[in-house]
Amino acid sequence: MSSQLNTVPGWQEAVADKRQRLQGLIPKEWIIPPIPEDQQNVLDTPKDCGLLTDRELEITNTPDVSVILQKLANAEWSAVEVTTAFSKRAVIAHQVVNCLTEIFIEQALQRAAELDAYLKEHGRTVGPLHGLPVSLKDQFPIKGLETVMGYAAWIGPVAEEDAVLVQLLHQAGAVLYVRTNVPQTLMWGETHNNVFGRTLNPYNRKLTPGGSSGGESALIAMHGSPLGVGSDIGGSIRVPSHFCGLYGFKPSSHRIPSYGIVNSLDGQDSIPTAIGPLTISLSGVTAFIRSILNTEPWRYCPNTVPKPWVQDEYLLKNHGEGKKLCFGIMWDEGSVKPQPPVLRALGMTKKALEASGHKVIEWKSLRHAEYVAIARSTWLADGSEDYNSCLTTGEPLINSMVPGADPNDVPAFRVPRKPLTAFQQWQLNKERRALRKAHLDRWEATISETGTGRPIDALICPVAPYAAVPHGQTRSSIYTIIWNTLDCPALVIPVTKVDRHVDIKPSRESFWSDEDRAVHEMYDSEICEGLPVGIQLVGPTLLEEAVLGAGEVVDKALKAV
Amino acid sequence: MSSQLNTVPGWQEAVADKRQRLQGLIPKEWIIPPIPEDQQNVLDTPKDCGLLTDRELEITNTPDVSVILQKLANAEWSAVEVTTAFSKRAVIAHQVVNCLTEIFIEQALQRAAELDAYLKEHGRTVGPLHGLPVSLKDQFPIKGLETVMGYAAWIGPVAEEDAVLVQLLHQAGAVLYVRTNVPQTLMWGETHNNVFGRTLNPYNRKLTPGGSSGGESALIAMHGSPLGVGSDIGGSIRVPSHFCGLYGFKPSSHRIPSYGIVNSLDGQDSIPTAIGPLTISLSGVTAFIRSILNTEPWRYCPNTVPKPWVQDEYLLKNHGEGKKLCFGIMWDEGSVKPQPPVLRALGMTKKALEASGHKVIEWKSLRHAEYVAIARSTWLADGSEDYNSCLTTGEPLINSMVPGADPNDVPAFRVPRKPLTAFQQWQLNKERRALRKAHLDRWEATISETGTGRPIDALICPVAPYAAVPHGQTRSSIYTIIWNTLDCPALVIPVTKVDRHVDIKPSRESFWSDEDRAVHEMYDSEICEGLPVGIQLVGPTLLEEAVLGAGEVVDKALKAV
């Protein structure tokens, strides 16, 4: 196997063939006329194109996953019509933001028909996700389909069996129908590869939908899917959720089953990938997590902790039943100040919580640069051998997400490093452990300030220092990586949209770092106008239920104002 | 830092000083007259030496930890007198089997007096382990004391704070009073190092008490401690328990807090150390695990899963309330046939369970050689850099446990390997994951045979292919390593003692492997006469409570016959 990055003929043909096959899977009658190249906001295209019936628009515009599930469960909507509606809308979305990598609507409709028949015959659903269309990031093998994950070399072979999560989603009643785009290597906060090309942000196609689960975020923002499954090693669920106005949840890394997925840096277990949902409503996050945990995934996935869904934790029984909570708030991590819309979203959250009778105390940033440095050293410990082993066709490594960039212009956080020895990796693991201990101690120490007799119930912080940015302009994901290094569950809640009249660029003369200056300088309220802005809500490792319970409190408080 | 194994003057002086200081910590009046060099069984020395009062003998001979705890809790025995009794007996044991590395009886008695005062004043105990003397393997730092762990280079510096487990034991009411011996590097099934020398088996001092928690097993077998804490990366709790007739429990690696311990191969997180107890009774195991989990250790240790003690799992609520269970039994792992006493212990267990109304089905060995190979490759991935970094004083690396052996005569499983890269370690992690998945699937598949509608409730297997062996004769710990690679909780239950009239050496003509032949040939029923023999009881990862619950069933069944 060669790791040389030359360009030999061959891989382009495989890519052309794959693209053609993908295009061929779109039903002819669902092909829409091209929209103007200079139309940047395409959120209304599904409605405007005229392809969806009123009922299909009603179904796909439903803003709450629990409502969809309820209407499916009581047969007000059939699984077939819900699947048809979301399939159509997914395919429409794909034509304007290039979000799909696999389309298998026929199988989906067949499964939906089975579900309808079951419900009719037995008077009960197959499982808690009965009939819900669920999209999947291009990492979850499905028997008989390719899993390309943005590598030309992976075109061709088909999976011999489903990933464990695919099996469990099926068992829970979900309908799988499309898979979605990712960046080559997955280790980018944007979504572009040599096989499927670039995915665009439906709020503004000049911007990125984030990454690496950017096919998901673009698709779900267009309501081409009510809920999708992504993965997150440094922000790959959370950044796309934030950039596209979605709820997104990165659980701890051993809560949702990962066995059988394809992955980047596979076998790197020190700061590993976590699997979680991106979705239109918080009810979607909860339904997904609860449903999967109730299948006892640890019986099938050796990476999953045997902890069932704990309803009492979700109801915040040990957090004063959710009354008079105390949240921490971290406005910034000390090296990069968030842009005005992000700070405003944090402020709105604080105010809303206080108006609902909760307390919010300051959380000062602690050693965050170290969290990020450890993560990068760990992910680059192989000297890029993993990446190179996937480029055997001669397909070039993508070194920049800037459209048309010089391929030798590599951002600092992507510069390859000398391979580490296993012993050196062990030393990094020791440093990571010390950081995790420092964080635990810090969390516990808040007991003295909360007034509740408990440490803070959850921590509020930015998802990124900015809303969605132009292609190629995302920078180091410091605000999300922290929680991967610490393996803490982190929930993204959409809070507001950029308002250029309010979110005025401040004048700043001194900066905390070069990165800080760059982030300040790139802010342009005209470009950002109308973009969604979210916050992160973080809790202790493996206490997903409590984070979701606290998330309900935050979401309700925000919606009440 | 030099990794050359030369012998420079200096380290021997540090060792001499340390030994002298240790000797100085033994109260003069507790020094016993030397016993005959050729007296091999020293189990009765504590009684015979005449140093213990009748009441002290009664206290230390109590065969059940729960009885000790009860008498402490109702003030029938004071913490001071219990601490005094076990301290005395520990020091006596040390003089005949060389098991201690640190002695801090004064601090222990002070703590015991505090506990007595607390109970008197408040009418309740400090915690569930109130007044129980607990010994510690030489890996648990205690503020103000050295933690030498068998390395000359570690003599001198004292700990600035307690390991998390030490803090939690203190909080639970335990009295810490001694630490115990280990082998240099910890990675041996025996107990010998250049600082403290060799620990002997009190059943027969020509034999090893096992390792690496061999100071613990020798001490507890002599009732110099009712319960000790060890660690286990490949059998280091279980082999010593088996060799010394104790109950021993290796939980999953992230259940009992390890933060703050000193360790070998520190930072190696792929097949890591687990912390657990060695003790005189199953009630001791349960008391330890339950007490520690009830302190919520995950709030203080970043390596601990936030799973509290689940009483329903312990009561086997999901296992038919403990009635009509179905156990798997693995007679051997296919490459090394256990010696007659071990096979007899397994047979006795099967018979006892069947007589109590349970079912026992065959479990065929599966890929066990691979489990062991992965573990060895992982532990040796650093090319011995970790060991060498601890030998900076010129102290030689111990390459053989054979007394007086040629230091260049290295057993196969200890031969140093070429260092791996981090990327190579990642590939090993992938193999380990695949093995864990194969095991899960196999476990689930037993549903078709159990007749309970569940997979087997637990698996019975050997701890080692032999009972205690002469110093230097332990071999690869295949039967225990399997469960470290799979990270399954494994409980050792003492079953019987070798009876030379029953456990007759069979005549065998063909062998499964060289190892098999060697294990067969080394069996000598005369040497083994009277040695304890245990079995292992194994369950799924992180389901410690169910293994202990099933352990009660097995223990009761064995005691009933």
Automatic annotation (TrEMBL), chains A, B:
Q: What PANTHER family would the database entry show?
A: AMIDASE (EUROFUNG), AMIDASE-RELATED-RELATED
Q: Which reaction does it catalyse?
A: a monocarboxylic acid amide + H2O = a monocarboxylate + NH4(+)
Specify the species. Answer: Trametes coccinea (strain BRFM310)
Q: Which residues are in the Amidase domain?
A: 81-548
Name the residues annotated as catalytic in the UniProt entry: 137, 212, 236
- Enumerate the residues binding substrate: 186, 212, 233-236
Protein's UniProt name: amidase
Q: What is its EC number?
A: 3.5.1.4
- The answer to whether keyword Hydrolase applies is yes
Q: Into which family does the record put it?
A: Belongs to the amidase family.
Looking up Gene3D superfamilies in the UniProt record yields: Amidase signature (AS) domain
Q: Which SUPFAM superfamilies match?
A: Amidase signature (AS) enzymes (SSF75304)
